[in-house]
Hints:
The protein is of the alpha+beta class. It has 2 domains: about 15-65, no CATH class; about 70-100, no CATH class. It is about 10% helix and about 15% strand. The chain has one helix at about 30-45, and strands at about 25-30, 60, 95, 100. The strands form 2 sheets. The chain has a two-stranded antiparallel sheet with strand order 1-2. It is elongated and about 60 Å long. It starts with about 25 loop residues before the first strand and ends with a strand.
Amino acid sequence: MARRLIDISVPLQAGIASDPPYMLPQIAYDDHHVTAPRMAEYMGVRVDQFPDGEFAAVERCEISTHNGTRSAAATAAPRKVGRKPLANNLDCLITPGLMAIS
């Protein structure tokens, strides 16, 4: 029987309703203008020495092991269920009636 894999992955982003409020990912987005003064100071140069006075945009993330799409469900199971490491082969995670990718 041919298998059909449906990608249900969701990228991490601020404000997503993916987890309980205390576990939500926190992502701060610093644009090219915000990072320029910080990097100029660090590098000992002037901001106007960067092309267009800009530097790299940066995303600073605070995440937990349960944010986003992952395949660690079996290793994160409660102790009474047991923790058995998953193999690196995704075929072991997908069987008829079971999709263990979370």
